[in-house]
């Protein structure tokens, strides 16, 4: 196995500071878990941003660096202006909305491109400094779309992979970006470009044809004398670990408490980052519609929506939060009583055990993004149901819908249809719930995050290296 250099905007760690000092702890996310094994075994490093450490004292910073080095992480520091323009600006106010089809949310003036470009170049410089011949480089996600080409210019012989964790939109959407050609050329610096679904691969191929006149033959495209491969690698989760968590006695005790509190009620669950792509307002209105048209459900249904604060420095996220707050208030005002409220809205992060307990306690899980590259929450819910119960209601616009066809698939723009699906889920006979959940679980367990890492890296390792440049005599 060659040494693996992983590159992502965020390092897979969280820096915590309290009265006892600073500590660097590993994150629990899917990417971090899936790549931990290959990262440690290969003896490589992970390069990325450790988050805002500007308020730490110099000795605290030194301690963070030492702890990061122990975890084989190489930090890149971002200035306040870079955070605002590269991360919040171009990454999250241009590329994020564009790839999720929210083209109207993009600022009128494209002011942050230069900083995005510069930070991508800085990432590439840092990676090149860490590189040793024979290493494999794996770059992750939309914040770093230019890194593969910057790396190719610095390391013509290197093996470089890139994975796009969010949707790749239709070429009709993508080509509205002023810097569309640079971005696509940026990706073409890689030997292998991975997406979650075949639809995203198809959109990317059409974009290459429309913008650069490049034709994809099966899964390959020729660019500047090199062959670039494209592929669909649907990301999975650490299914075994979620299943184990969901069987722990402490988690089962929490499940019992959730259920006891609502013995007469059915529990409906939503778990998301608070992001406007997640479709929370329409989901809330669908719950409201069911209560409106079927009075028998009033007082018998408890909807818990867990929302983890995200990108709070970006204005659209603040506005979205207000919208959600207002809707929750409206529905509870209309359908609550002195004994209970229909919507329990929790704006905070939960640990994996708490999440597993909620997943296992839920009768119905609502995963209804208007667009989502994959959506791992849907898979976590299935993994946490060794009891083979619970119904998943899933948006057709989540990448996960390609794999999880035995969920109740809904159009998240069709509120009435979602209210129907919720009712169907609540009334579903146990036998049908079990049959569906068995199939969903088999898929999630077989195609887990370890399968994903293996299949991407095996394909990358099998790509022929770029031919050496022949200098004219
Ligand atoms: P995205 O990558 O857009 O956030 P995913 O569903 O693919 O969406 O992944 C979200 C991850 O964040 C999941 O692993 C999920 O467990 C975690 N997560 C979501 N909501 C919360 C929360 N309230 N607290 C803690 N973790 C959360
Ligand atoms: C999505 C993106 C990731 C990103 C994550 C959290 O999953 O694909 O690249 O890291 O959201 O967002 P944040 O902006 O907090 O890193």
Question: How would you briefly describe this protein structure?
Answer:
With 473 residues, the protein is an alpha/beta fold. It has helices spanning 30-42, 58-70, 80-99, 113-130, 147-154, 171-174, 180-187, 198-212, 239-247, 249-261, 280-293, 315-335, 352-361, 376-383, 415-427, 430-446, 449-462, and strands at residues 4-10, 13-18, 21-26, 46-49, 73-75, 136-140, 159-163, 192-195, 216-217, 220-223, 226-232, 266-273, 301-308, 343-347, 364-367, 391-395, 408-410. It has 17 helices and 17 strands.
Care to describe what's here?
It is built from 17 helices and 17 strands. A hairpin with a 2-residue loop joins strand 9 and strand 10. Helices cover 46% and strands 18% of the residues. The protein is an alpha/beta fold and 473 residues long. The protein binds adenosine-5'-diphosphate and 6-O-phosphono-alpha-D-glucopyranose. The site of adenosine-5'-diphosphate has 15 residues, from strand 12, strand 13 and helix 14. Keywords: Glycosyltransferase, Transferase. Pathway: Glycan biosynthesis; trehalose biosynthesis; Glycan metabolism; glucosylglycerol biosynthesis.
């Amino acid at each position: 196995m060659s040494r693996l250099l992983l590159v992502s905007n965020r390092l897979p760690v969280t820096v915590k500071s309290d009265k006892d000092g600073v500590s660097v702890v590993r994150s629990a996310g899917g990417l971090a878990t899936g790549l931990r094994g290959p990262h440690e075994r290969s003896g490589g490093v992970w390069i990325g941003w450790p988050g805002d450490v500007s308020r730490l004292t110099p000795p605290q910073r030194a301690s963070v660096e030492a702890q990061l080095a122990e975890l084989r992480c190489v930090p890149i520091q971002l200035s306040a202006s870079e955070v605002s323009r590269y991360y919040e600006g171009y990454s999250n106010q241009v590329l994020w909305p564009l790839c999720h089809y929210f083209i109207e949310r993009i600022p009128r003036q494209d002011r942050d491109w230069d900083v995005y470009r510069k930070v991508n170049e800085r990432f590439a410089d840092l990676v090149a400094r860490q590189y040793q011949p024979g290493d494999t480089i794996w770059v992750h996600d939309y914040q770093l779309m230019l890194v593969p080409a910057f790396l190719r210019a610095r390391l013509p012989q290197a093996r470089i992979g890139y994975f796009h964790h969010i949707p790749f939109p239709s070429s009709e959407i993508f080509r509205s970006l002023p810097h569309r050609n640079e971005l696509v050329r940026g990706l073409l610096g890689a030997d292998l470009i991975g997406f979650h679904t075949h639809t995203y691969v198809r959109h990317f191929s059409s974009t290459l044809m429309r913008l650069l006149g490049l034709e994809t033959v099966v899964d390959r495209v020729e660019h500047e004398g090199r062959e670039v491969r494209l592929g669909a690698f649907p990301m999975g989760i650490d299914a075994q670990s979620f299943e184990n968590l969901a069987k722990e006695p402490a988690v089962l005790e929490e499940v019992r408490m959730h259920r006891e509190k609502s013995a007469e009620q059915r529990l409906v669950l939503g778990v998301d980052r608070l992001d406007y792509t997640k479709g929370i307002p329409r989901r809330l209105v669908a719950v409201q519609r069911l209560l409106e048209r079927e009075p028998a459900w009033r007082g018998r249904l408890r909807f818990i929506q867990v929302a983890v604060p995200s990108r709070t420095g970006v204005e659209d996220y603040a506005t979205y939060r207000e919208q959600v707050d207002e809707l929750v208030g409206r529905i509870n005002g209309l359908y609550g009583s002195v004994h209970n409220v229909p919507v329990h809205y929790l704006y905070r992060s939960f640990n994996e055990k708490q999440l597993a307990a909620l997943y296992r306690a839920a009768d119905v899980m609502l995963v209804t993004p208007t667009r989502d590259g994959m959506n791992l929450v849907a898979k976590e819910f299935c993994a946490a149901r060794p009891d083979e119960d619970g119904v998943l209601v899933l948006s057709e616009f989540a990448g996960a819908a390609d794999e999880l066809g035995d969920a109740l698939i809904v159009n998240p723009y069709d509120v009435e249809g979602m209210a129907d699906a919720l009712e169907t889920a609540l009334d579903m006979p146990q036998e049908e719930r079990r049959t569906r959940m068995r199939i969903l679980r088999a898929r999630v367990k077989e195609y887990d995050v370890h399968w994903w890492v293996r299949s991407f890296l095996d394909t990358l390792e099998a790509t022929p290296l770029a031919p050496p440049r022949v200098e004219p005599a």
